[in-house]
Amino acid sequence: MPRRKSRPGSQTGTRRRMPTRTGSGAVAYLAIVAFVATYLVVDAYRPVSIWVAAFYLALSLACFVVYAVDKSAAVAARWRVPENTLLLLGFAGGWPGAIVAQQVLRHKTKKASFRQAFWGTVALNLVAFVVIFSPLLPGMLAG
Fold first, then answer.
1. Cβ atoms < 10 Å from Cβ of 59
2. pTM of the predicted model as reported, rounded to 2 decimal places
3. pLDDT at 9
4. At 134, is the secondary structure helix, strand, or coil?
5. Is 64:97 a contact under the CB 8 Å cutoff?
6. Cβ neighbours of residue 53 closer than 8 Å, sequence gap 6 or more
7. Virtual CA dihedral for 132, 136, 142, 143, nearest 10 degrees?
8. By the 8 A CB rule, do 67 and 108 touch?
9. d(CA 65, CA 69)
10. Which residues of the chain have pLDDT under 70?
């Protein structure tokens, strides 16, 4: 049996290993739980329209689908969804769906710069939600 030629700089019989993920990623789901708790607390003090929850749910579903399309494109080496689009969808309110997509599809979980930007958009969205829907906003506008 003829011997296979190896690429320059590689060892015969070795494979290129992808970096492994650290942890299960389940901690990311805590952000969703914390948001639901925050939503309920804010709603108890100042009722939030059901349309806000519907908006977050719709954007989350859309965000999940866009992540799935991007994952499929990445696997097939096709045109990819720009990271700025993924971040904008998350910032707009689709970040719960993005978290689920990242964990279920194992997509966009390794690139540190994207993860940092993603969690920054989540934090900004949460701050905006609290400021807009909590009793803080009327007090700030009156004072």
1. 20
2. 0.77
3. 47
4. coil
5. yes
6. 39
7. -130
8. yes
9. 6
10. 1-24, 136-143
Helices (H), the chain: 29-45, 50-76, 83-89, 95-105, 112-133, 136-142
CA–CA separation, 25 vs 28, rounded Å? 6
Q: Is the Cβ–Cβ distance between 125 and 95 less than 8 Å?
A: yes
Q: Which amino acid is at 134?
A: S
Taking a C-beta distance cutoff of 8 angstroms, is the pair 141, 135 a contact? no
Between CA 22 and CA 12 the distance in angstroms is 28
* pLDDT single digits (tens) 119-142: 999 999 999 998 888 876 666 666
Backbone φ and ψ of 135, nearest 5°: -65, -5
Residue among 40, 42, 58, 132 at smallest CA distance from 96? 58
The Cα–Cα gap between 10 and 8 comes to 6
**Spatial contact of 61 and 100, defined as CB atoms under 8 Å apart:** no
* Burial class of residue 13 (count of CB atoms within 10 Å of its CB; 0-12, 13-18, 19+): exposed
pLDDT at residue 7, as a whole number? 47
